[in-house]
Amino acid sequence: MKYTHILFDADETLFHFDAYLGLKTLFAEYDVEFSHTDFNEYQKVNAPLWLLYQEGKIDAHTLQVTRFTAWGDKLSISPETLNIGFLNSMAQICTPLPGAESLLKALNPNTSMSIITNGFSALQQKRLNKTGFSHFFDQVVISELVGVAKPDPQVFEHTFDLLGNPNKNQVLMVGDTPKSDILGANRFGIDSCWLQHEGQVCPEDIKPTYQVNSLNALQTLLLS
């Protein structure tokens, strides 16, 4: 295989990230029936915050607190408490994407695998432990702890330092979000594979090296 190192995104690349179910699970603890309308209102706040975070304009704490400020006021609970509850709910309901375990097992003997995620530290290790995937990864790099988020090249530089600075020609980034995963790989100068989910479109100015629509297809691409 061409690549000695594979860097994976986490959310919707290796693991389902069903934010609606996670929020329903969270708010059920407060006897709140969280609806699709509630979720749409939440996303009006949450989605722009993620863009600001990826652009380095706000930090992780600001994102996590601000997205729950309105609900905190409504329920007289601190946004920090709601955020921690949400991440715990997401860990509780986490499942791998189809083909994830097969892919990791197939790559495991001969390939160094790591995760670079813009997700938050309170979720990552719990999710890896729940799925039994921890042992597959040499490094789990969390933007919140590094202080910068994908697509900033510094996240990739930090990861490469941890991995002993492998040859860039032998490293592949795999992710589902063009504006963080693929753009970040492009800026850092490594190959990328875009995991395209149904209905997603890649911006014309962002060019992945490869494109697949499932992890099974990625396994075939890498190991055929």
TrEMBL record:
This is 5'-nucleotidase. NCBIfam families: HAD-SF-IA-v1, PRK09449.1, YjjG_YfnB. It comes from the Bacteria. InterPro entries: HAD-like_sf, HAD-SF_hydro_IA, HAD-SF_hydro_IA_YjjG/PynA, HAD_sf, PGP-like_dom2, Pyrimidine_5'-ntase_YjjG. It holds the Pfam family Hydrolase. One of its GO terms (molecular function) is 5'-nucleotidase activity. SUPFAM superfamilies: HAD-like (SSF56784).
